[in-house]
Design brief:
Blueprint lengths: L1 H18 L7 E4 L18 H7 L5 E4 L2 E4 L15 E5 L5 E4 L1 E3 L4 E4 L2 E7 L18 E2 L10 E3 L2 E2 L1 E2 L15 E6 L3 E7 L10 E4 L15 E4 L2 E5 L23 E3 L2 E5 L2 E4 L15 H13 L11 E3 L2 E5 L2 E6 L6 E3 L2 E5 L6 E2 L3 E6 L5 E3 L2 E3 L3 E6 L5 E4 L2 E3 L4 E6 L5 E4 L2 E2 L3 E6 L3 E4 L2 E2 L2 E4 L2 E8 L9 E5 L4 E4 L2 E2 L23 E4 L2 E3 L12 E3 L7 E3 L5 E5 L14 H4 L46 E5 L2
Parallel strand pairs: 1-2, 2-4, 3-5, 4-16, 5-17, 12-13, 16-18, 17-19, 18-21, 19-22, 20-23, 21-24, 22-25, 23-27, 24-28, 25-29, 27-30, 28-31, 29-32, 30-33, 31-34, 32-35, 33-36, 34-37, 35-38, 36-39, 37-42, 38-43, 42-44, 43-45, 45-46
Antiparallel strand pairs: 6-15, 7-8, 8-14, 9-26, 10-11, 10-15, 13-14, 40-41, 47-48, 48-49
């Protein structure tokens, strides 16, 4: 009898434990046909995602059904662990749109294509994007004022005019809008070329963000499968709160996956810092950012408190600052499988924080298999890229460069990437390792002796010291340099640019085509000056690479690259290893295929074909 009672008690305990886990989690449903007076069941769904967020507890799933939801999702709480998160998801197979805009239909025609609307200021509540100026550290408005508001015709943003008089000329390829806010009302003028805006979908920004907690520390949230658009975000410098169209706001363990994210006035996804009284007070100085880091440590900036996010398989476009931004808050995160494009396309303003991805303190961050193009600058890792791995990404069609490393001391690893823009690498750092990349553009490098920037113990946010960048201490192993730039610029595609750097570089196993120049630090490079591989991309949706490297490439074997071979970065004294501290072996290529340890071929593809003729799908 006693045994039976013990067995019964054990069963009850097990059931209690199961009900404390996801087994007893609730599913809350949201529908445009629902009511916030409902209970969130499938039969009586809620009307707004915000109402479901107020009810959800750790382990719950919020399923949002087809329709357009015009609201700011401000989660009041998160999950308790990776196993007990709160999941926000679009219902499988249903199109769910969340917008930071509202529809406006009361337009009055003034003349020709010029229309106007007047709205009471109360319409905007406590935030009016048409009086909210874009501003912040390292922002450059090009001598004029810009606002976080925008006007959209059938989903496409109009350009903001500098003055109302600019709208007196006929609408061009990019029609214009202008806004003015007085004591009682907000007046907007806009050019609608050849259409009646009251018969079209015309929207204006009214909310600063779409999915972003109003407080910090809202951990373990998943956001999956939504279309999120049209947010009145402000400039996101590293010294201030960085509000994106979506972001975790200085939290831990978010998963943002399989979403379409577009039309943020500044940034799409933010993995950035919190706000405080010192926002935008750095006076654009390195010393100001050092103080920002010190304050972050004072409030507990560690790899245990923030970061560990996953941003994967999203499409991010039409943002005028960054696709993904993050200062300090992205540590230990993974950014993978995203398609990021059309960033900073209008170029009405500029500043030192613009890129497809722009991170400060990318400590133990993995940036893997992303397609980034038409973003001005592809990837910018600024200050404290340590333990960072940039692997198997596709970069192309950038007017500045594919990757920019600024005042980092390493170690960071750049491997198996396709760097296909006219400038492939800008290097104002040291301690980088570039392995098995295809590089078709120029490399530029320079020291920075004016700023002392931090380095860290391995896998830590603790500052071990500050140092200037003298230049060099890089490793270049098993890369292919195949310039596609004009003949006069081909010499800059190669390692000769490092010939005079103070601390030299290590180079071995690289191949140089079509005028690319090796440097003095490499003893036995393979140089094929007469062969132009003709690297080119084909396709539009799916992307392929085609090239003819000739018989020289498959006949040239190189060494397998490992943590031991790469050594340690000079300043930090830290090795090139995985975020968990385990050693690396670079035995997989861009496609994830294994490399033959007995026949390591340079470049990002383990097998370029027996005759060096390559035709392969890369996205």
């Amino acid at each position: 009898m006693k045994r039976a009672l013990n067995a019964s008690a054990a069963a009850i305990a097990a059931l209690t434990l199961a009900c404390a886990s996801a087994a007893c989690a609730a599913e809350l449903h949201v529908s445009v046909r629902g009511s916030d007076a409902g209970d969130g069941s499938l039969r009586t769904p809620l009307r707004t995602i915000a109402s479901a967020a107020r009810l959800a507890r750790a382990g719950d799933v919020i399923t949002v059904h087809e329709g357009t939801y015009r609201e700011w999702v401000n989660p009041p709480r998160g999950g308790q662990s990776d196993a007990r998160r709160i999941v926000y998801r679009a219902a499988p197979g249903e199109r769910v749109v969340i917008k930071g805009s509202e529809v406006v239909r009361s337009w009055v025609r003034l003349h020709d294509d010029l229309w106007t609307v007047s709205l009471p200021n109360a319409y905007f509540g406590g935030f009016n994007p048409y009086s909210d100026s874009i501003h912040g550290d390292w922002f450059d408005g090009q001598g004029r004022r810009h606002h976080t508001g925008a006007v959209y015709l059938d989903g496409e943003a109009l350009d903001e005019a500098a003055a109302l008089d600019d709208l007196s000329t006929p609408a061009g390829r990019h029609p214009l809008w202008f806004g003015s806010v007085n004591a009682d009302s907000t007046v907007i003028w806009a050019q609608f070329k050849g259409v009646d805006p009251n018969r079209k979908l015309v929207e204006i920004n009214v909310r600063r963000t779409v999915f972003y907690p109003g407080k910090t520390g809202v951990n373990y949230i998943t956001v999956r499968g939504f279309i999120m658009r049209q947010a009145a975000t402000n400039w996101a410098p590293p010294t201030a709160e960085q509000v994106g169209l979506i972001g975790p706001h200085w939290s831990r363990g978010w998963i943002i996956e399989n979403n379409l994210i577009s039309d943020s006035r500044c940034s799409g996804v933010s993995l950035g810092k919190y706000g405080d009284a010192w926002d935008n007070t750095s006076e654009n100085s390195a010393e100001g950012y050092v103080k920002t880091i010190e304050r972050a440590h004072a409030v507990g900036w560690t790899t245990e408190t923030v970061g560990h996010h996953i941003v994967r398989n999203n499409t991010i476009s039409n943002c005028e600052q960054t696709g993904i931004v993050g200062s300090l808050g992205a540590v230990c995160s993974r950014i993978e499988g995203n398609h990021i494009y059309d960033i900073w396309t209008r170029r009405l303003f500029t500043g030192a924080e613009i890129a497809g991805i722009k991170l400060h303190a990318a400590i133990d961050v993995v940036i893997r298999h992303n397609r980034i193009h038409d973003a001005g600058r592809g990837l910018w890792l600024d200050w404290m890229a340590q333990g960072t791995r940039v692997t198997a990404n596709l970069f192309y069609n950038h007017t500045m460069e594919d990757v920019f490393f600024e005042v980092d001391h390493g170690p960071y690893l750049v491997d198996n990437n396709l760097l296909l823009s006219p400038r492939s690498i800008s290097d104002a750092s040291e301690g980088g390792a570039y392995v098995h990349n295809l590089i078709t553009g120029a490399i530029v490098t320079w020291p920075d002796l004016t700023r002392q920037t931090p380095y860290h113990p391995a896998h830590s946010t603790t500052v071990a010291g500050l140092a200037n960048v003298h230049g060099g201490d890089n490793r270049f192993y098993n890369n292919i340099f195949a310039p596609t730039v004009p003949a006069s610029q081909r010499g800059a595609c190669g390692l000769a640019v490092y010939d005079s750097v103070e601390y030299g570089i290590q180079a071995e196993g690289n191949v140089y085509y079509n005028g690319a120049r090796p440097g003095v630090h490499e003893s036995a490079p393979l140089v094929v000056p007469s062969v132009d591989p003709g690297v080119w991309m084909y396709g539009s949706g799916g992307i392929g690479i085609e090239a003819n490297f000739g018989k020289e490439l498959p006949g040239h074997t190189a060494a397998l690259i490992t943590t031991a071979r790469l050594g340690k970065a000079r300043i930090a004294g830290v090795g090139y290893e995985n975020p968990d501290g385990s050693p690396m072996t670079l035995d997989r290529d861009y496609l994830g295929q294994p490399r033959d340890a007995k026949r390591i071929v340079p470049g990002p593809f383990a097998d370029p074909g027996p005759a060096g003729i390559l035709r392969v799908s890369v996205w």
